[in-house]
Predict the 3D structure of the following.
Amino acid sequence: MSQKEENAISPCREEDFPEWYQQVIRAADLAENSEVRGCMVIKPWGWAIWERIQLILDGMFKATGHRNAYFPLFIPLSYLQKEAEHVEGFAKECAVVTHHRLEVRDGKLVPAGELSEPLVVRPTSETIIGAAYARWINSYRDLPILINQWANVVRWEMRPRLFLRTAEFLWQEGHTAHETEQEAWEETVRMLGVYERFARDYLAIPVIKGEKTESERFPGAVRTLCIEAMVQDRKAIQAGTSHFLGQNFAKASGIRFQSREGKLEYAWTTSWGVSTRLVGTLIMTHSDDDGLVLPPRISPSQVVFLPILTKENCRSQVLEYAERLANSLRETYWEGQKISVEFDTRDIGGGNKNWEWIKKGIPIRIEIGPRDLENLSVTLYRRDRPHRKKEAVLIQNLPQRVCEILSEMQQGMLQRAQEFRCKHTHIIENKKDFYDFFTPLNSEKPEIHGGFALAHWNGSVNVETQIKNDLKVTIRCIPFDLIPEPGKCIFTGEPSRGRVLWAKAY
Amino acid sequence: MSQKEENAISPCREEDFPEWYQQVIRAADLAENSEVRGCMVIKPWGWAIWERIQLILDGMFKATGHRNAYFPLFIPLSYLQKEAEHVEGFAKECAVVTHHRLEVRDGKLVPAGELSEPLVVRPTSETIIGAAYARWINSYRDLPILINQWANVVRWEMRPRLFLRTAEFLWQEGHTAHETEQEAWEETVRMLGVYERFARDYLAIPVIKGEKTESERFPGAVRTLCIEAMVQDRKAIQAGTSHFLGQNFAKASGIRFQSREGKLEYAWTTSWGVSTRLVGTLIMTHSDDDGLVLPPRISPSQVVFLPILTKENCRSQVLEYAERLANSLRETYWEGQKISVEFDTRDIGGGNKNWEWIKKGIPIRIEIGPRDLENLSVTLYRRDRPHRKKEAVLIQNLPQRVCEILSEMQQGMLQRAQEFRCKHTHIIENKKDFYDFFTPLNSEKPEIHGGFALAHWNGSVNVETQIKNDLKVTIRCIPFDLIPEPGKCIFTGEPSRGRVLWAKAY
């Protein structure tokens, strides 16, 4: 068997990254397109990953004082119109409900009961939540309001892509209202920090925190902060955003309160969200040519037992031995939580089972055959090593060894992603190098081709538009953690207040 | 202060039960109507109850082998039409998406981009999930499929009522596919059992398990099973349903598989669901004239500490003492879980704070003032006793006493609800008594007026229709746990195979 054939995913990353991405999803049985244009079906393994994301983030939101609530799916057209930039930003991608029943006319089922005012399926909930906050808030004593909702939203997509861009997607949206500008700004920054920590510590994805330029701002926001990840084709993915909305939405929705000084003032609001897009980011960051690779902290299960039951005469002994070990591992704590263990006894052939779990990205596979039983050991495979590389572990060492490996993997995956991003992030000092960097055929330095470019910029939208038209490259953010270093815009020679982050993006 | 004035909710249950219900929701700050007709906003305390319901049920579903997944919000019109009874059942209450963007025409924002096929916002997901199962299932080896989804659904409501009947509601819907009729039927019964146990053991709501008559069946089902609860106005609420769908939806969606014998066969499917309606049922079952009363197992928190901070000179001592006790209670386990404790130091007056928590239904309130500090005790109030009835508890006994009370409350609330239902369930042997039972002004026996009636019935839809028209009374179910006892229909004198359960219902 040639090296080539050994990979489970075809094409491989180098050959065709977008197609490889689709195939990883299919091989791991995460999701599929439905017959409803742009809407996906999230299958159990994909959903289990999203459930882990929800559970962990929800805990982080609650630890920062937020509570969950739920607001209507439908937004009256008139609400959406209250904020001019907002409606302009979303008008082109709204699913609109116009009727409230069906009836048979001329033998055909057709919409009936036309609504006097059409309803929009929420693309985001600033306006409908704003209307509620306007009812709830009277005095500074009612502030802050710190609420999050887990919900589905719809933005009609012309070029859908599983997880990354779907017409319906699932997300959380935090919506907060504050007494002062300062408080609202601090909240905006705080939640960006939560997203960064979550991405880093759980998804093992290093992200760059920063601020969007005006042209990439959320429609209606005063400032939009974001976290940007680099995936393995060196493109950027916006993995989460946190918006400082100023008083824009408070004015649009009439969120006013009696201040401590007895004056009627508009509240300061924020909103922030991450979505099922995180699952796509996770896949593109860590997966390899054998399929998904899951960081142990986010994997629905950390370990799968694969008893080898081919020999009839010792089948029951192997099974019993494996079950005892699996149950003991289920009582083992890793990072304060019991290890989640799958036990796969399906009769579909050892090779098939093994490959299925490789493609699903489970961190550790434990094979147990008659010989392991004799040796009082197991054969362990880890997903962050080549799939044939095995390790014999004596059963008395198994719990400890599993914990060690899980910790190593979690750290190792983050480190690998950090190194990858570091290797493909370059300071670029002139226009020619910039164009070379983003144009494969022109490149004189192929070894530093593509990725994140840090370059000076004069702050002009025109330059952004030009670059986007020429190279499909955009400013991903003005990074927070760069030491401000004045310079000259590499495109115009005009003064720049600091480097910004450029990349092609999903 | 008169006895009357002491109740927090006006009107009281006896005066106007439906209005009392609305006022309990408002007083506990659970939910409110939005400006979108029939859609509610679920506020944080209401959502926290739903979150508890989700968490516990989700565990029960997983323990019975189910996994979660997620299917599209939108259903193509053509899918809905595949099952004739199904589309007829839902056509009158469908929100229909006809356009996918908005544009300004004559200065007015209007729907644009008309869809070639309208999309229905899911009222339930049999058809869209059926289409997926048809893709996934090829062989008997692919069966059973045991999937649940947590989702929002929309059924246009002409007379909405918070939690009980809303245009958008939240629910879980289980959808399973099986190789045999027997297996599918067992699943249908199993999940009804899960619902019954959940209602009884967590919500402290005793329910009657049974089967719906043909006229009350889910559109497209072969058999519909249900759990029925009695609330305090002696009406019934259908709290959950489990449908045996036979091969109806498999035929409609083309869910076929190669059998063990190599034949192509249709799968047998089930579906089952409970919704945010459970929150309404919970409110109507247990609340009193002071507001919500929550069973400890479902309450988002079990205990609230209310330090009395009015005396400036010992404020910090009281606070410190109360915090120490609260933290120690937070580390106390009740039924294997840490007790959830609220700590309310808001400066809104002790009486206001106390009443707020009474109305929110928290099981135990603990007041701590300077005198408690002197006595090394606390003053404890429980929600299932009159609000003034207090109990001094020495601090060394506090954890144990709290656990005792929580267990007592959980059991006591179920027992009280069982006794109430028992008291208001009557065997009725003739038509006159039946009409009297359900007609207040005619009643000659007011002490047994209203509630559940067990009466013989000939099995005819015509009789059901007549009774519904005359009395607004319907057959809630054919109870499972009644010993079959042949008799004569009390309306027609015709043979009956057993008594059925009649009631007015929400």
